[in-house]
């Protein structure tokens, strides 16, 4: 039986990761946090002193590293060569460098390949990112697009950082969000767009539970 795929796209801080994880839990499906893949590679490159502008060397670095992505009840866990880097990849400086990987045709194709391979092995999957419904899984069974005002998304990201024990200056986080939005929407390779046929949900003034319930209601008619 063919595996089913639900894609959840949207800008940074729109709630994709949290909602996707909760939806996957409610459905009993696998969860793929694609943003963690990009962040993990950005972190590994920075730690190795690798210039992100040299995409061929970054790709070689990715081939030498062992990345593991493990869904947990408290959130996805990311391991680099057996070391838990789940908190480190959420730092603002890592966030700021992710767009350089995302804008590279070579590195993005590497990430897309990793995501599709994950889906082949994971069974039914809920996957989130910025190009899941438009590029990676254009034939997904159901597509969602989450969005919210930039200020609301910045507040959420700052709260996440503080909850992880990191200092978060709101203005710096807000600037990073705005820069990421611009980079995601203007890049030539797989820019952030609302996929065709996607169900659009504004997450600005509703809870994660309410967003999840909206999705489950939609899924009753589609899956």
Describe the structure.
The chain has helices at residues 16-27, 34-47, 55-64, 92-102, 105-122, 132-136, 150-163, 170-186, 208-222; strands at residues 5-9, 30-33, 67-70, 77-80, 83-84, 125-129, 142-147, 199-202. It has a five-stranded parallel sheet with strand order 2-6-1-7-8, with helices on both faces. The longest helix is centred in the middle third of the chain and has 18 residues, at 105-122. It has nine helices and eight strands.
Give a concise summary.
This protein has 223 residues and is an alpha/beta fold.
Q: Hey, roughly how much beta strand do the residues contain?
A: 15-25%
Mean pLDDT equals: 91
How many helices? 9
Backbone shape: globular
**Which blocks of ≥5 consecutive residues have pLDDT under 50?**
none
Q: What is the end-to-end distance?
A: 14 Å
* Biggest beta-sheet profile: 5 strands, parallel
């Amino acid at each position: 039986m063919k595996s089913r795929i639900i894609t959840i796209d949207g800008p940074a801080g729109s709630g994709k990761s949290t909602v996707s994880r909760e939806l996957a839990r409610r459905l009993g499906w696998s969860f793929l946090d694609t943003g963690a893949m990009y962040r993990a590679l950005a972190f590994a490159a920075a730690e190795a002193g690798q210039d992100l502008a040299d995409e061929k060397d970054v790709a070689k670095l990715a081939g030498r590293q062992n990345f593991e992505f493990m869904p947990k009840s408290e959130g996805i866990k990311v391991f680099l060569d057996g070391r838990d880097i789940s908190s480190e990849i959420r730092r603002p400086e890592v966030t700021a460098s992710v767009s350089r990987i995302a804008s590279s045709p070579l590195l993005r194709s590497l990430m897309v390949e990793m995501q599709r391979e994950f889906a082949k092995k994971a069974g039914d999957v809920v996957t989130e990112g910025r190009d899941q419904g438009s590029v990676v899984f254009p034939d997904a069974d159901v597509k969602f697009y989450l969005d919210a005002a930039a200020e609301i998304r910045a507040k959420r990201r700052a709260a996440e950082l503080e909850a992880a024990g990191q200092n978060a200056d709101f203005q710096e986080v807000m600037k990073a969000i705005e820069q990421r939005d611009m980079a995601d929407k203007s890049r030539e390779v797989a820019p952030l767009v609302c996929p065709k046929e996607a169900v659009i949900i504004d997450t600005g003034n509703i809870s994660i539970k309410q967003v999840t319930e909206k999705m489950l209601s939609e899924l009753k008619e589609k899956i």
